Every structure is written in structure tokens, then in C-alpha cells.
Amino acid sequence: MDELLSKIESPSDLAGMSLVELEQLAGEMREALRNVVANRTAHFASNLGVVELCLALHTSFDFRRDRLIWDTGHQIYPHKLITGRYHEFGTMRLKGGLMGYPNPHESDYDLFMTGHAGASVSTALGLKSGDDLQPGQQDRHSVAVIGDGAFPSGMVFEALNNAGGLKKKLLIVLNDNKMSICPRVGGLAQYLDRLRMNPFYTGLKQEVVKALSKVPLLGDPVERLLWQAKESIKAGLHGGMLFEELGFRYMGPIDGHNIGQLTKYLKLIKDVDGPVLLHVVTEKGHGFQPAAEDPVFFHTPAPFRCEEDGVLSIKKSSSRAYTNVVSEAIHDQLARNPRVTVMTAAMCQGNNLEKIRGAFPDRFFDTGICESHAVAFAAGQAKAGLRPIVDIYSTFLQRSFDQIFQEVSLQNLPVTFMLDRAGLTGPDGPTHHGVFDIGYLRPFPNLVVMAPGDEYDVVPMLDFALGHDAPVSLRYPKAAAEKHDRPLAPIELGRSEVIDWGHDGMFIACGTLLGSCIKAAAALREEGLDVGVINARFVKPLDTETILRAIESCSFVLTVEEGALMGGFGSAVLEAASEAGLSAAHVRRLGIPDKYIEHGERGELLADLGLDAAGFVQSARDMAARVGIVAGRRQVS
Ligand SMILES: Cc1ncc(C[n+]2csc(CCOP(=O)(O)OP(=O)(O)O)c2C)c(N)n1
Known about the structure:
Elements (H helix, E strand, L loop, with lengths): L18 H21 L5 H5 L1 H10 L6 E4 L6 H9 L34 H13 L9 E6 L6 H13 L4 E6 L10 H10 L8 H8 L8 H14 L6 H5 L3 E7 L3 H11 L6 E6 L7 H5 L10 E3 L5 E3 L7 H15 L3 E5 L9 H6 L4 E3 L4 H13 L3 E7 H4 L3 H9 L6 E5 L16 H5 L6 E3 L4 H13 L4 E4 L21 E4 L4 E6 L3 H13 L4 E5 L2 E3 L3 H10 L2 E9 L4 H11 L7 E6 L9 H7 L4 H15 L1 E2 L2 E2 L3
Parallel strand pairs: 1-2, 2-3, 3-5, 4-5, 8-9, 8-10, 10-11, 11-13, 12-13, 15-16, 15-18, 18-19
Antiparallel strand pairs: 6-7, 12-17, 14-16, 20-21
Helix pairs in contact: 3-11, 5-6, 13-19, 15-17, 20-24
The structure holds thiamine diphosphate.
């Protein structure tokens, strides 16, 4: 049913719609959201929760001119539905289709391409102060919508501090649904809980609303708002002192599913000079009972369908992911060693740490979406004599670059970084691909950088890391774990593992593309090309002995990594060759080129980049031809 939604080409089509029609539209939008997740993994519960808020914002402001930033951007789907993208909605998160996050290439209504939490207040403030400096632009409103999960990010408080000082006309809508991906944690969460106890939102709400609705509708809106604030204080209803002290006018909490109330407040706030924080209470998963009951699963559910009797049939993948292999290995370490701790920055579910949270509540730390704090916090624990593991997505660790430098590497503290989703993450796209970590970790002295070649490497590598008296990082992709049967060489600092020595050429694989290299080498052998495979295991220190021997003795060498080529593993190999005075003209690096890779299934993206077995076969053939090897026989040069 899309009677109204199918006619919405842009938010201007909402003008003149009655409250009843807007509510009907909200229902149609929820149905469109359900249709997407019926077919593929996508963000769901967060989007269900902001449908009314999205409609209220678009009917109260004109975002062709005003500025709207959805923090993180995972809850952008309703906004996409009413900004001209409904008819493409079925392509959501498919390669070549709509992105699951804001994307300025899709629409002028999306200002920044984002996917990392906590930047909205800064960019909305920047937009406002940028507009204010230009003639004729000062009337533009700037709005940031941020969830209570993203709100505790350090950057948000930096921005609040700045905004309170600048006194710019800025609206922050705090979307409080009591959830991050998992239930929200921390002192600020408790503060928001207390604000929710405000009688304005609870039992007394009706009376207060009645009292406040006595405000004459005519007259100066600012005066009306001041009157309301005064009346709330008199009634002992005023909360939000923390925000008031920071220089914000705090309004709320109000019901984020009540379009009428939302628009009433938004319209009033438009006339307030200076920064305002509107505290809106929503239910994550609103309008779809299973999602409201289990918002953790329905944050980004795997495909499911509703059966006639209402039972959900969840299609589960049968393969075990690296994430699961790692979480079991961490569990085992915590069980064996009381000095081991683990921390996550709000990714308990994504990193499959829920069992660990239950089994070791004293040694499990969820810092909230505060990656830089998590790393410095781990450094403190390491200094105190513990062996902290920071279990984190590669892309989110970028938020902690300086803490890795100063608090960890400079002090040479034994913090272990488990970098999940290192590589192409698939349908999330460029904001989430974890392709930079090799490049940004390699330069730090003291830091050991490792990459398991397969599942067999994971447990011994974590063992090695926790026994090593210095920081260590270990990267693995969002992929099904593979096992390559072989006599397993023990993990030794700076030692690679030779799987097969090739006389014509060599693949030197950094990480789990090892499996595709092994397959490619087997196929090439059938063609008469003797190409070997090395499992590099260490990016730093590099096994220069073995790798330089390969460069010296093989006709060609292909380095392979699921990471940015620039500054990556292959670069490290070239640097080593250069240091040793070896020619590297016959070395070719395979990895992620110097551009952002769009969203799509990981397998499709890897294949497009020539980073699958077929691509490796082709690259080896090309190199063989280039150095003069034909059908397995080297030509006399
Ligand atoms: C820097 C960063 N860390 C972690 C994440 C992963 N992440 C995406 S959404 C989310 C929860 C956000 O909660 P909230 O802001 O309250 O929004 P809700 O989904 O509850 O509406 C997290 C942890 C991220 N996107 N960015």
C-alpha cells in the first residue's frame, strides 16, 4: 500500500497534508522499510523509530535551503523515502543501488556521506557558522538529529562546548530511544533516564500539555516559548540543567511519535535565537512489534519473513564468521587468564561479545561509541598490569589514531587490538570498509601488525599477542572463516609461513585472501606455471628473510592484501626490497586502489578489483607474460 508515498516526489509534497494523512503516510513508509529488510540485511529498528520525526522535520523546515544532518546516517531511510528516492528503494544497499547511509551523490538533501557516529553536531554547527558569514545566508536553519547512543561521543561534547560559546542558532534533536545497538550504557544514559522521569513526559504530561496549550496562539512566538519555559519551571518540570549550563535551551522530553506535538515544538524553536536541544523520546522498532521487542536483533537484521501465524522465520547463515572465531578465542583467554580484559566501543553485538559480557561482567567494558577513550582506557589498564584486548572494527579504530600513538605505542604498552571488518565490509560501503588500518598502524614504532591467513592462525596469534610485551594488532575480515589444511608453522615474531615455494612466481598473501591465492596457485599449476604461496602473517616486523628470497629467486612476485595499497603491506615489501638494494620491477601489488569503493556484496567488490582467485590467476598470467614466461617455460632472455 503506497497510495500517498508513491506520490511524494519531494518534501514539498507534504505541504498541506493533514495530520491524518501524515499518519497514514508514516504507516506506508514503515511498510516500505519492511519490504527492504524482508529481502536483505539492512538497518531497520532505528529507521522505524524516526518516521514521525522525519515527517515533522520536513514539514517544519525547508531542507532545500535549511540544513539537516542525521548523525551516523543509519536512520536515513525515511528521509530517503520522501526526498525522491522511493521508487529506487528496492535497490537499497545493492551494488549500484541506493546507499544505506546519506549520500550527496544521490540527493541534495544529503549533505555529507557519513556512517561514523558523533559528527553531526560539529558539521551542523559548521554549516550554520559558515552560512552566517555569507550575505543572504543567515536565515538558513541548521539541524542535527542525534541518537542517545551516539550522543556520548567525545566529539559531540566538543561541539556542544563550541556551540554554547558561539551561541549560534542551532537545533540539536536528541533522539532518545534508550538504545545504542545494544542498550545504551554510562553516566549520560542514566542522566537521560532521569530526564525521562520528568513529569512533563510521564504521568503529569496531559495536565501540563493542557496548561501549556492555554498559551495564546497569536503573538510573538519567542514570548510564547519563554512563557512555556517559565511555566514548566514553576511547575517543577524543568530538566536538562546539564545542557542549560552549557548554553543550550533545553526543551522536552516530548513524544517523538506524535507528529502534531513535534511540529508544534519545531515551529516554536525556529524562532529561538541561540542553540536549542530538543529531547525527543522514541521507541526503536516502533510500529513493528517484533522489532520493538528485540531492537538489538532488528538493528540490522538478517533476512527474515513473517509467516501467516505471525512467527518469524529467520534465515541463518550456516558458515562461521571470523568474528565468531575471534570472540570464542577471546572468551577462552578470559577464562584462562584473570589479567585479560576486553573492551568494545558499543559493538558488543557486532563483535559477538554478548556471551563474554554475560560470563565476565567485571572484565568486559562497553565504553559506548567512544573509540578514542576506549584505547586510552585500555592503555591505563595495561599500565596497571592487565592485558586488555580492544575488540573493534577497523574503520572505527580510525577515531583513535592519536591514542594509539601517544597512550599505547609511545609507552610501549601491551594492548592487543582485534580489528574486525578489516577489508571490504560489503553493503555498508565506503564509510565502513576497513581498508586503511595497515597503512595507519605500520608507522608506529613498537606496534606489531599481524593478519591471520585463515582460521587456524587466529588462536595462536591471539596467544602470541597476549604473551608479547608490546602492542599488537590483528586484522580479519567480515567473512566466513576458512581453514587450509597444512602442517601449521608456529607463530614466531616476524616469521611468515611458506605454504608452497614457486619457481616461476610467488603470491605473498597478507591476511585471509590467502585462500584465494592457494586456489589461484593450484589453477596456475594446471596451466604449467609454478607459482607458490607465502602466508605473510606479519606486516610488521616483516619477514624480510623469506620475502626478499622470493623477490630474488622468483620471476615475479604478487603481494596480496585486502587493504589500501598506499602504505599497505605491498608497500612494506617494496620498501624492504629497496632497502636491500633489490630491483622490484617484477613485483606487483594487488589490493585496494586509491579510491573509495562503493557498497555491494564483498565477493562482488573483490571480484571487480581482481582480488579473487580468478583475478589472481589473471594477474599471475599477466606477470608471467611480462617477464617472458610462456606456458610454464621461461624464455631465455
Ligand atoms: C564511530 C562509530 N562507532 C560505532 C558505530 C556503529 N554504530 C552504528 S549505529 C550505532 C548505534 C547508534 O545508536 P543511536 O545513536 O542511539 O541511534 P539508534 O540506532 O538508537 O537510533 C552504532 C554503535 C558507528 N557507526 N560509528
